[in-house]
Specification:
By secondary structure, the protein is an alpha/beta fold. It is 37% helix and 20% strand. The protein folds into two domains: 147 residues, Nucleotidyltransferase, domain 5, CATH 3.30.420.40; 184 residues, Nucleotidyltransferase, domain 5. An eight-stranded mixed beta sheet has the order 5-4-3-2-1-6-8-7, sandwiched between helices.
Amino acid sequence: MSELARPRKATQDASAIIVINCGSSSVKFALFAAAQSLSRLRSGSVDRIGLANGHFHIADADGVTITNKTGFFSNHATALGQVLEAVERDASTPRLMAVGHRVVHGGAECDCPVVITRALEARLRKFIPLAPLHQPHNLAGITAIRNVRPDIPQVACFDTAFHHALPRFAILTGLPREFCDQGIRRYGFHGLSYEYVVDALHGYGVDLDAERIIIAHLGNGASMCAVRGGRSVETTMGFSTLAGLPMGTRCGDLDPGIVLYLLTEKGMTVERVQHLLYEESGLLGVSGFSRNMQDLLARAAEPAAAEAVELFCYQACRHLAALTATLGGLDRLVFTAGIGANAPIIRAKICSHLEYLGIKLEAGRNTSNSRIISADGSRVTVEAFPTDEELMIARHVRRLLAKQPAVAGGVRP
């Protein structure tokens, strides 16, 4: 066993947690000191895995580039091997105590982060059809780390966990009861982002028990969540990551009759329909050229681009208004994720149709991306700030392993 792979025991003060988020052809990661502050030490990515022009980048806490190289990374195992080697050979960073993974779907049983075992991996593979864009790659990252560093504990943190306690009526689909008993129900996603925002609001002094809150996670994947007492009571995504708002490449809510029509009348295969709904629809499908909101806004004079933007904002208004019915009103609206935190035009478009709810933005604050963007006289407080799912995962890993010192010391259950 090499020095890099040698098991070790380490105190949290002298250790680090690496957070991994695997996509189909990329690995994003962040390294955190496991001390109380959980300061971010490094962040980076390996992109274009499997292609000749792969790219590996690492930056320090100030965003200064440490590693920037191109090469061929044949698979996730190769990419993650490079990441771990670079991190552990850096004498300025603490030694790793654990790896935290974002896992999109945990099913009905997983309501909190858990140490990964082979049995858990086997169960999580059953959810691949429910999140085909994410789950296979999340699991590939887990397998790759185990192959490279079998001694290091891995922790799965689930995007579904925050919604685990949704009210009974919020999880039902309208199908016969036996299907719900078989796991065909609404789950909700983006939970790590919502959990971070709730924690942030608590830190800002918001009375979570008193306020009715909607969080709009608007990015390449987009959803909204109604929060009461710091808990999810309704969300726009459901059984799969297709539901709710139109997204970068996903369709959002769709009459199921359309799917039946595509299968029976258009002769499409199940695989072809799945690819259409997950990877060819949304902003990309409507605009015809891009899934990126920034690209669409830059070409807003073109009818197809303008229509894609307006559809996104229209559906956001519709879903946001519906969530207020669940809450019985609205006291606070938070925009987050790539579009929500960084696109003043989109925020303004959405809020301009919701003044009847008491939402009123202050144009200067919105344009300058202030945290509070509502006008002084707005009955609803409107905020916009970035989410940090990686930090949320690091927090979960540290809390879990503090309760399981044998695992933190390198002894797997």
